[in-house]
């Protein structure tokens, strides 16, 4: 039985490698991670069964052969907008869970006009972190596809406290950093400065809806601004996740400076560092250019400096940054991420933001 089914459907439709489960009522094949999510949404939506099961009804097998992942996708994703984030197995739980719920429970992508994120307009309340305190306040947010902006309000309901141009902002989920399963970071880039805003919604559906509404509105704006680009090409980079984040020790400009512990974020070609992970603005930013322009990364730090374990050196045309990870795993990750950036030619979106003074 196992072989018959495996032969018929060798790979899951997600980014997972192996099929270990099926959904009997949906007629699809699942990897382990997706099976956990399917189970959590309930048997009325998806009836999960391990492939290793010994008992199969002929009708179940026939149904699985008849539907399968391709036909199910045809049906359940017929009207899936290009701007909607398709999750991978590495995505936060809220994204993967809401994907399953949107697709099979609410059937948002089987119908042409379901899901408020398609409209390019959205307003509602989100919990927003205070700029300098660890407290969150309920704030009204408004997304306007007409004005290409995201606004938020404090006391005055008529006059926005912040008005962020969609071309200058990015959104990404950051549940671990915020210690909140529905945490989302809005990064705003303007005049060489970076501003981070941290928000969450009580419901997973709501935060994922905001995220996809912002993506949809931004993609629409980009389609108008860049008429020669294809929608698929623009959608692939309409928002982006950070290549890596974490604590590092960083040297000052001279050998006698003490090392400081900073929270580092690799945002496309900008390595930003913060005093604390949820700070509104970075202490500094290092533009990481191409190898041909004098950028490189090396393991270890030059002699004459205090030597700590797990060190590496980021070399830019102006300065050498001595950095130290907490362990070998993190060192390898930072090294690979930076090495990849250095070896990749900058694209039109990778222009340097003028960096602030570092410390
Ligand atoms: Zn999967």
Automatic annotation (TrEMBL):
Name of the protein in question: ADAP2
Keyword Zinc set for record: yes
Alphabetized SMART domains for the sequence: ArfGap (SM00105), PH (SM00233)
Annotated Arf-GAP domain residues: 14-118
InterPro entries found in the cross-reference section: Arf-GAP_dual-PH_domain, ARFGAP/RecO, ArfGAP_dom, ArfGAP_dom_sf, PH-like_dom_sf, PH_domain
Source organism superkingdom: Eukaryota
Organism: Cordylochernes scorpioides
Segments forming domain PH: 119-219, 241-343
Keywords: Metal-binding, Zinc, Zinc-finger
């Amino acid at each position: 039985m196992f072989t018959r089914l495996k032969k018929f459907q060798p790979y899951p439709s997600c980014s997972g490698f192996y099929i270990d489960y099926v959904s009997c009522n949906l007629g699809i094949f699942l990897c382990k991670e997706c099976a956990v999510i399917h189970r959590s949404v309930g048997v009325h939506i998806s009836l999960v069964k391990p492939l290793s099961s010994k008992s199969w009804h002929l009708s179940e097998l026939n149904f699985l052969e008849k539907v399968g992942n391709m036909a199910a996708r045809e049906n359940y994703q017929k009207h899936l907008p290009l701007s909607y984030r398709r999750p991978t197995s590495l995505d936060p739980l809220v994204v993967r869970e809401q994907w399953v719920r949107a697709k099979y429970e609410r059937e948002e992508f089987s119908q042409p006009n379901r899901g408020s994120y398609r409209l390019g307009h959205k307003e509602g309340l989100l919990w927003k972190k205070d700029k300098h305190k660890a407290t969150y306040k309920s704030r009204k947010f408004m997304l306007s596809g007409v004005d290409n902006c995201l606004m938020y309000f404090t006391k005055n309901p008529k006059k926005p406290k912040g008005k962020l141009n969609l071309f200058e902002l990015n959104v990404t989920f950051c549940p671990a950093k915020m210690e909140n399963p529905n945490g989302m970071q809005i990064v705003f880039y303007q005049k060489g400065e970076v501003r981070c805003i941290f928000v969450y919604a009580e419901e997973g559906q709501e935060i994922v809806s905001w995220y996809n509404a912002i993506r949809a509105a931004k993609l629409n704006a980009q389609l108008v601004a860049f008429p020669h680009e294809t929608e698929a090409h623009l959608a692939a980079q309409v928002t982006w996740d950070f290549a890596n984040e974490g604590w590092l020790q960083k040297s000052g400009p001279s050998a006698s400076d003490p090392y400081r512990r900073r929270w580092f974020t690799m945002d496309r070609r900008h390595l930003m560092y913060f005093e604390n992970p949820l700070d509104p603005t970075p202490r500094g930013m290092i533009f990481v250019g191409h190898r041909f322009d004098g950028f490189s990364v090396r393991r270890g730090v030059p002699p004459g400096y205090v030597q700590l374990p797990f060190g590496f050196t980021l070399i830019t045309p102006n300065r050498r940054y001595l950095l130290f990870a907490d362990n070998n795993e993190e060192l390898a990750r930072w090294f690979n991420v930076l090495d990849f950036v250095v070896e990749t030619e900058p694209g039109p979106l990778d222009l340097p933001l003028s960096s602030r003074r570092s410390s």
